[in-house]
Amino acid sequence: MSLLEKAVRSAQNTDYAFTKFITANDAGKTGGHQAGFHIHKHVWPLFFDTPGDKGENKDKFVTIKWQDDFETDSRFIYYGVGTRNEYRLTRFGKGFPFLTDDNVGDLLVLCKVDEENYEGYVLSTDEEIEDFFAALNISSSDTNQLIPKQFQLNFEEMLTSCFRAYIESLSEDFPPTIDLACNARNCYNSSNSINSTKVKSDPDKIILGWLDAEYDLFKTIENDRYSDLIKNPFGSVEDLVNVANTILNRRKSRAGRSLEHHLEEVFNTFQLAFESQVVTENNKKPDFLFPGIENYHDPSFDEKKLILLASKTTCKDRWRQVLNEADRIRTKHLFTLQQGVSSNQLKEMKKYGVQLVVPKAYLNSFPKQHRNEIMTLDSFISYAASIQNS
């Protein structure tokens, strides 16, 4: 069984499971004195029966088996004395391999086996991380919190009502990904009174809301379509495997195009000139080309006014894929939902002309010394608009 399969199985079979991207702060690369994994306040049930009380510290010692291989006697502690108000997981012993600069951007998975024993996994590659998200049916914005159990959904009433109306209107089991994305946006916008003015005021926040809504809608459809199926025993192991593969492949297919669909809507709202999935050299198809493919193939068009934007949910390894997508464009912009990568990787991206673009809320997950070099979606849009209006 692969490391990914073990991590998925553990997260699915334990009462409490938690995941987060490892940050520069965790690895001690931000200049702070505190070592160990920072754990969000809402995740206290993973270790404690009650949340920490301000004004006092409390801790718990646990055994964690990492990668189904080696164990650490670690300490989960709440710091509440003085100005501090945070949870951390510390004490991993000498030579612990997952708190280095190269681990920034890796995915940490912690699962509670019983009161004293836990399982820990660190997933490093883009494929592992994305497959883990697909298997658990979560998104990158669902990290840094407890992993929700499948088919246990609790949506706001208006959003749920909108989802249900859409599902009842479907003539097929699952709609095309672009239809799913569009209707998720419509439900989110109507439930939250979002109009084009609000999108323009904070595109970084809105696109994360759209992505969350689409994941929720997709899970609602899965619940509707599969709830009866999973209650009944399968005729054979082969039948079970076939259904499981169908579910996972559909999840991965949807997730792969989701980000692109929502970015396209943002760019249309801002009335930017662009085309998606057009063909450049060697049959390469960049996700977005500004202002368009005719301009790109026109040798008289000013190369400084051409912009490439790739979109990838994770980018620890896959950022290199954008390097040869458009020979005329020296700097390649890359929008990602990755939360944190190492300083070394950011330096390498800069060396090869890759400009990272992330949602504003994710900036703090990157090493502090590099944050001013990373664009937000809003600043990228401003940049593209200034180029097109010059």
What would you say about this model in short?
The protein is built from ten helices and 14 strands.
Describe the fold and architecture.
The protein is of the alpha/beta class. The protein folds into 3 domains: 3-146, Beta Barrel (At1g16640 B3 domain); 157-256, no CATH class; 275-389, Restriction Endonuclease (3-Layer(aba) Sandwich). The protein is 37% helix and 18% strand. The chain is built from 10 helices and 14 strands. It has helices spanning 3-13, 126-136, 157-169, 177-192, 196-201, 203-231, 237-269, 293-297, 343-351, 377-389; strands spanning 16-21, 37-39, 58-66, 70-79, 86-90, 107-112, 117-123, 145-146, 275-276, 288-290, 307-312, 332-336, 354-358, 375-376. The strands form 2 sheets. An 8-stranded mixed sheet has the order 2-5-4-3-7-6-1-8. The chain has a 6-stranded mixed sheet with strand order 9-10-11-12-13-14, with helices on both faces. A hairpin with a 6-residue loop joins strand 4 and strand 5 (86-90). Helix 3 (157-169) runs antiparallel to helix 4, helix 4 packs across helix 6 (203-231) and helix 4 (177-192) crosses helix 7. It is globular, with a radius of gyration of 22 Å. The N and C termini lie far apart (56 Å). Mean pLDDT is 88; it is low at 151-155.
